[in-house]
Amino acid sequence: MREIPPVSDLPPILLDWYDSHARALPWRVPPAARKAGVRPDPYRIWLSEVMLQQTTVATVKDYFARFTARWPDVAALAAAEDADVMAEWAGLGYYARARNLLKCARVVVAEHGGTFPADHDALLKLPGIGPYTAAAISSIAFDLPHAVLDGNVERVMARVYDIHTPLPAAKPELMGRAAALTPQGRPGDYAQAVMDLGATICTPKSPACGICPWRAPCLARAEGTAVGLPKKTPKKPKPIRHGTVYLAQRADGAWLLETRPDKGLLGGMLGWPGSDWVDTAEPRPEGTPPLVAGWQPLPGEVRHTFTHFHLMLTVQHARVGHAATPETGEFIGQNQFSPGDLPTVMRKAFDLTR
Prior knowledge:
- By secondary structure, this protein is α+β, with helices and mostly antiparallel strands.
- The protein contains 14 helices and seven strands.
- The chain has helices at 10-21, 31-35, 42-52, 57-70, 74-78, 82-89, 96-112, 120-124, 131-142, 151-160, 171-181, 187-200, 219-223, 344-352, and strands spanning 240-250, 255-259, 270-271, 296-297, 302-305, 310-320, 330-332.
């Protein structure tokens, strides 16, 4: 097997490539502007990194634009109504991120004067900020030499060093390699460069090795193993859970909705009253209807996949009079409710009523 060049040789090669091929992203300061002294906004870096957790860049761009137009800085976000933020987040998924986003913004304002701390350990103490996000903010916003390790970087490291240990067991070794490569000079640009390399060149399928700036030193390319890396431990099949939701519409067009408890899946989000979600298919759990009505099952069902399970929901629908009094939730007028305020699984249930 060929020996890889000295660690010090690799970052300059990648930074030269990044200077010409950096992706244009709404939260990013381009390399030329960064060299000219323009500093990234830590608020925008933090917001983008939280949104990008488990979510693609293509999906995040529109959400990021709406958030920053409505709440242009951390103080504005900290002062926002919880329901407004949760509604704006609807459809982005992993809703604990939105709750922690508000908590973090309020701590930054209350305890740090509205300025994100330029200190890795202090960042780790903020709500919702874990090791990866703290490293990303430290390097990208404050140009501190902290290694970032997202899925793109894991893939690049596994291929450059031809590492065959499957994930997640390989993470410590991959982090060690990533940390060793992180330069003291331009660490923020380097962090974004290696993520761009994984996103645009060293892709999961059909990597473009012929135009990769690290093609010469890449051990996996030389060994012909790049496409199979990183290896992953097989996942267990996801269980299937079942439940029922109740969609009631009043004679004036208002819909019966509830705000879900803060803790748990879809916490703090608007949703339809319904049963618990359980791992049994027969009989399907129906829970207790939120009010007495002539409930009718709608044809079809809602199918949605969460991180750890698949969900299948039956939908019961009813039209009720003005005097209807629900046991749970409240009626929200048509002019105050938009289906876009609902998380995706709840919006799928609404779509069945059409």
